[in-house]
Amino acid sequence: NFNQKIKKYFFLKFYIFFFLFFSNIVYAIQNSIIANIDNQIITSFELKNKILTVLLLSNQDVNQDNINLSQNEAMRSLINLKLKKSEISKYNVTENEQRLDAYLKSTSSRFNTDIQGLKSIFKNSNINYDLFIEELNIEFKWQKLIFDLYKDKINTNINKAEIDKEINIVIKNQANINEYKLAEIEVTFENNEEAEKKINEVKNQIKKIGFENTAIKFSSSSTAFEGGDLGWISSKSLSNKILKAVEQLNIGDVSETIFQTNSILLIKLSNKRVIQSKDLNTNEIREKIILSRKNEMLNLLSANHLSKVKNQALIEIKK
Fold first, then answer.
1. pLDDT tens-digit profile of 155-193?
2. In the chain, which ranges are continuous DSSP H helix?
3. Closest Cα to residue 169, out of 245, 280, 246, 247?
4. Which terminus of the chain is more exposed, N or C, with fewer CB under 10 A?
């Protein structure tokens, strides 16, 4: 009996050792390093988690076709995330807990639950919720950083006297103002060949899963987290190029591709309304125009700043 116990003990010990050793090998394979971004890494686990997060938030099934379609954008997003994380660490940007909480409540409501329920959905979907929260914090910190770095430039470039002049002309002529409820998808590209490929991908996905879900999946704009939603925007707030595209749309339509510097833009018209001249609130209109133009400049400055950071970074993607 004693010898049998000894044999069982050694067998059990060997089994545990073998199991742990084998598990570590499997984990190492599953969580291998797939990219180096300066002094940071991207692992296969992070990429898998990002893909599953995108598919969950964009309400798509987890299958090989959807995984393949999401992989490149997920990788691009992770690279940008690492670059943003490195940049915000230089400036010690503080977290915006209120904005994070507001976003999580909004996202939870899309799943007919609360924040705790959203955590459970992530857990049941085998998605790391903490990585999702970290990504949100980095994105919100990045937006704050860009505003802090360039706020003087933004304020200098917004001509309030010119805005007041436009509003006064409207009031004087007793003209009405059109307002549009818009959503956007902005996608960056490196060259014309890539731009054409992305346009086709995005348009196909809009047909397949809808504009909002495609924005979550593909858009590089800060509005991606909200499905590209821009809210109600006065016609006076829009650039001539975008206004011209929007005016041709019926409610529910998506614009033709609008080319910008290193990015393409698609606009959806969700609704529209006319504000009668007698109901115009000049202060409210002025603030809306200023806010819209600030956001437009912030998006441009954000893309330019990230491009500079990327050009200076050592990015190595492992084959």
1. 888 877 887 887 777 777 667 788 899 999 998 877 777
2. 2-30, 44-57, 64-91, 97-110, 115-124, 129-157, 160-172, 192-209, 211-218, 240-247, 282-312
3. 280
4. C
Distances (CA, A) of 10 to 18, 21, 313, 315: 12, 16, 52, 48
Picking from 61, 302, 270, the residue whose alpha carbon sits closest to that of residue 179 is 270
Alpha-carbon torsion (195, 68, 41, 301), positive or negative: positive
Radius of gyration of the chain, Cα coordinates, nearest whole angstrom: 24
Task: Answer for the pair 40, 86: CB distance below 8 angstroms, yes or no.
Answer: yes
**18: amino acid identity, one letter:** F
Chain-centre distance of CA 31, in angstroms?
A: 24
pLDDT score recorded for residue 3: 52
* CA-closest candidate to residue 221, choices 103, 300, 138, 313: 300
The count of residues in the chain is 319
